[in-house]
Amino acid sequence: MNVALWIIQILLAAAFLVSGITKVTRSSKRLKAGLPEFHPGVIRLISVAEILGALGLILPGATGIAPILTPVAASGLAIIMIGAVVTHARRKEGRSAAVNLVLFILVVVVAIGRFALPL
Questions:
Q1: Which of 33, 47, 63, 107 has its CA 20 to 30 A from that of 40?
Q2: Nearest alpha-carbon partner for 84 in 114, 46, 57
């Protein structure tokens, strides 16, 4: 179970890191064009949270420092994914909503697994 959780954590961390960095480095104009209903500052805030969540999935377990932060980071990412699923569903973007739903399920698995099974 521990190995499976680590594999999921690494894949999730990579996905959230890429997503977060991509959105943080985009111009405000491009952010506004892609998500007109959100202020670019809000999108950047969510992006920073994704980056921190990605780091939180890996670093506590890898360093042995405050391993309780791993399931906490996964829980935070789950909250972000709920918002993403709702946003994409409202915009009738089925594929994006489905991808975010899968990410939500995976971060919930990590959160529950890491609360129950310490690193």
A1: 107
A2: 46
